[in-house]
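User: quick one, fold this
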Amino acid sequence: MPPSFVDTHIHLEEVPDSPAAVDEAVQAGVTGLIAMGTDLSTSRGAIAMAEQHPAVWAAVGHHPMNQAPPDLPALRELTRHPRVVAIGEVGLDHSTDEHVGPHEAQEAWFRTLIALALDTRMPVCVHIRDSAADVLRVLSEQPGLTGVIHYWSLSADFARRFLDLGFHISFAGTVTRSSKEQVREVARLVPADRLLLETDAPWGTPRGRSGPMRPAWMIDTAQAVAEIRGLTLDQLAEIEKANVSSLFPRLSR
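Assistant:
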């Protein structure tokens, strides 16, 4: 039986012909996918896709690139759905992108979403672009919170600080690129019980591929991480399966 992996972070509503992309992923060995919600509409859409395909699960959240605050009562109601496994995508974004929300508001929104995660006993899927120090500060004030820092791109020092808070670290297609030595170093160093994989599709296309990222291509990421860590694909699949079951207990039901 071929190794089986879970894409722990994907934006399925942005993936061209998403039903076919999910089928293609399952055939390739990516047999589970967690579709992110970036606002109320996409959170509802993620749940709808999870209802339509047994390989898909949903997260509900509010991305820091929103300009308006989250609808917390509506998001809370969505967490009751049995296919919802996490609060995400949430976090901070202090980049110069013109679309990001006001920095002060972002942190207030992030804290309310963390409170929702704690209340519902769900993990958070965290965005940290140009904001790692502030995200660390906020997360350090939240005992009992679990989650994953998605699309890892930073140094080993930052990785250790997030790991010290009990967080998982997820690797995307960037780890396939030999020029991303910082990311590859963290892939070597992260403890086996904190390692996850993702696509962030349609972004994060791995080396040797072209066009928007497809979930089936996460196998390229898995092969790169396995090689970096001196593992077989089967060994890596068992590690990721255990970590997914630990962090996302609803998904393992």
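User: anything notable?
Assistant: The CA atoms of residues 123 and 247 lie 7 Å apart.
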